[in-house]
Recover the amino acids of this structure.
């Protein structure tokens, strides 16, 4: 990177440094989305990113490209076609048997080589275990900026990526720019963004890329993959109905009231961060910035005050119902329906009322 | 086995308050803690040291007060602690942070010998990026193992490490070579309290404090705000929706309240009743 100019002296407003994009970065064009293909399945966050990437590309008047890595075969080719259905104009396809299972070394090498060859201005990845493992390696190799766990992506007036994410432990939001380096990289957590409409009539160009990879030079080997038991999987992020509890429940025992309602509704259950810290629920049930983002049709928040870090994880819900004794709790600022009452007393009654209302007899009546 | 654990002193996020008018963080009086995720990595490092012998060094970059967090790591059982502190590091984003840390780690290796393992936390609770570990690994050319749920085997002779790693939909069992960087998943071990003798030793110990110069950092333009490709343009509270929640008046008992609440939900979203009836009956 000897051709990199010396960084400008710190200024009062560093935003004014924006016009000084170094010459060698000016050719970087187009928006890329890394399509996360693991064990034959594409992680749905990739489609969400293509939806966001489509808007950025349209505003910038550039192409949206999907980056698909995988072993040669149907699953990889299918991922390419699906990327077109979800909005990509073209796909960079890196097929290699070395890329069958995710490993940091070959994946970061392949993505870095692809970026250095085809030069995107924006590169988006999912903030998943795979995406976070990969993004840090790629950004560090490229010596560019990376904004992790964004909740919103936009293009500002002069074409820079404005990436917004929670900061200070989720108590405020901040907007971050990568001004003088390319690509501008960002990760977004699953379910933070809506899934775009899938259009099977869409198609696109495939650009095959041969990455310089050699299994003999890759030190880390996958010995085994142990799939999760079906019963152990939490469907929290993708559930249609979610019930969650917060500190307003007052005790670990009272959390059972949340589970009871969830059982009657056929819903998933979760909780706010303090409940995980207190050990009332496991961390995979945490909803919010450091837990899971959710986009259910109905979200019932019982005894949750609604800190920003929780808010950013649930704002995609169609209907947010808040139960809290404090009428000034921030959750009422973004809930759609609120009731000022004690969740500990309301939840059992709500469970019983829903049980009656949603009983199979009523189902027959509705079907008739 | 020579092991390094990178830690960070963070504000106890449960106690952070935002000033309602100025939207600034009210830091005063907020207690600091060792980033909770780092403790699982520290414990794993201590377990390996106890088994194989050797030493555990802890490292942090931060203001002088971060020495408190390092002292705590020694009370838990670390053998040595190093604080990297200098005004040049202020305002660093993840890329600039990994540069300074990697340079300091090189200096540590020059001073006390080559490291076998470097640990970091999965992420911090203040930045939440999970990117510093991978960045440090890349800068040092270390193999990288994140979201590790179990160290199955560490063979000092063969220089091999076998671990279990949390992946989407399952667990990867990976074999790699030392030296490598490991970020443990939370809840994967029981963090020790530390012995009384460790507490006494920690209370008396010198925390080794390095400036950028002491750490032999070559290029100060790669540190701190100067070395950060990202720029925070604005910090703000999310806009309050103009329409606050539609409040439902509680009834005279919980049963009545439940009924009016359900009515309000289905009135607002009529399609929900059909969907939920199906869901409730297990469709």
């Amino acid at each position: 990177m000897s051709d990199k100019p010396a960084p400008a002296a710190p200024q009062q407003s560093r935003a004014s440094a924006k016009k000084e994009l170094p010459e060698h970065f000016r050719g970087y064009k187009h928006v890329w989305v890394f399509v996360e293909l693991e064990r034959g399945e594409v992680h749905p966050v990739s489609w969400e990113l293509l939806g966001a990437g489509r808007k950025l590309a349209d505003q910038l008047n550039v192409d949206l490209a999907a980056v698909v890595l995988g072993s040669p075969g149907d699953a990889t080719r299918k991922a390419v076609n699906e990327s077109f259905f979800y909005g990509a104009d073209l796909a960079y396809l890196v097929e290699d048997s070395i890329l069958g299972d995710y490993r940091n070394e070959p994946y970061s090498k392949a993505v870095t080589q692809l970026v250095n060859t085809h030069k995107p201005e924006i590169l988006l990845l999912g903030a998943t275990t795979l995406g976070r493992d990969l993004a840090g390696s790629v950004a560090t190799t490229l010596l560019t900026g990376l904004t992790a766990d964004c909740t919103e992506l936009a293009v500002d007036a002069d074409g820079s990526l404005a990436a917004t994410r929670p900061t200070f432990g989720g108590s405020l939001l901040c907007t971050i720019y990568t001004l003088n380096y390319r690509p501008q990289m960002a990760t977004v957590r699953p379910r933070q963004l809506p899934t775009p409409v899938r259009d099977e009539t869409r198609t696109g160009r495939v650009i095959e890329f041969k990455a310089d990879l050699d299994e003999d030079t890759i030190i880390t080997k996958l010995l085994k993959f142990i799939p999760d038991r079906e019963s152990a999987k939490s469907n929290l992020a993708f559930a249609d109905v979610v019930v969650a509890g917060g500190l307003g429940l007052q005790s670990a025992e009272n959390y059972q009231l949340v589970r009871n309602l969830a059982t009657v509704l056929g819903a998933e259950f979760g909780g706010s961060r303090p409940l995980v810290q207190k050990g009332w629920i496991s961390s995979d049930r945490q909803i919010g910035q450091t837990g899971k983002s959710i986009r259910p049709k109905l979200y019932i928040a019982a005894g949750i005050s609604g800190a920003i870090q929780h808010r950013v994880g649930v704002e995609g819900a169609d209907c947010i119902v808040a139960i809290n004794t404090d009428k000034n709790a921030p959750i009422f600022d973004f809930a759609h329906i609120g009731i000022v009452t004690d969740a500990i007393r309301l939840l059992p009654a709500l469970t019983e009322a829903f049980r009656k209302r949603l009983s199979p007899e009523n189902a027959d009546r509705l079907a008739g | 086995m020579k092991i390094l654990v990178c830690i960070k002193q963070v504000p106890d996020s449960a106690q952070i308050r935002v000033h309602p008018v100025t939207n600034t963080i009210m830091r005063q009086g907020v207690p600091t803690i060792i980033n909770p995720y780092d403790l699982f990595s520290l414990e794993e490092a201590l377990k390996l040291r106890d088994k194989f012998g050797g030493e555990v060094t802890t490292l942090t970059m931060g203001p002088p007060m971060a020495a408190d967090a390092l002292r705590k790591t020694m009370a838990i059982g670390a053998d040595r602690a190093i604080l990297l502190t200098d005004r040049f590091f202020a305002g660093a984003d993840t890329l600039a942070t990994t540069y300074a840390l990697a340079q300091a780690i090189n200096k540590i290796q020059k001073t006390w010998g080559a490291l076998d393992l470097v640990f970091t936390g999965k992420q911090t609770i203040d930045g939440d990026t999970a990117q510093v570990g991978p960045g440090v690994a890349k800068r040092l050319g270390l193999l990288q193992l994140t979201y590790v749920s179990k160290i199955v085997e560490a063979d000092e002779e063969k220089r091999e490490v076998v671990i279990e790693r949390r992946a989407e939909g399952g667990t990867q069992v990976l074999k790699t070579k030392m030296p490598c960087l490991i970020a443990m998943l939370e809840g994967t071990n029981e963090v020790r309290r530390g012995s009384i003798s460790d507490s006494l030793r920690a209370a008396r110990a010198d925390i080794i404090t390095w400036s950028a110069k002491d750490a032999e950092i070559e290029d100060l333009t790669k540190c701190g705000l100067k070395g950060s490709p990202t720029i925070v343009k604005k910090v703000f509270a999310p806009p309050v929706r103009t329409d606050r929640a539609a409040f439902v008046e509680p009834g005279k008992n919980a049963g009545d309240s439940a009924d009016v609440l359900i009515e309000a939900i289905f009135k607002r979203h009529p399609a929900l009743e059909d969907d939920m009836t199906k869901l409730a009956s297990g469709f």
In short: Chain B touches chain A through 94 residues (CB under 8 Å). Residues 263 and 270 of chain B are 10 Å apart (CA to CA). DSSP finds seven helices and 15 strands in chain B.
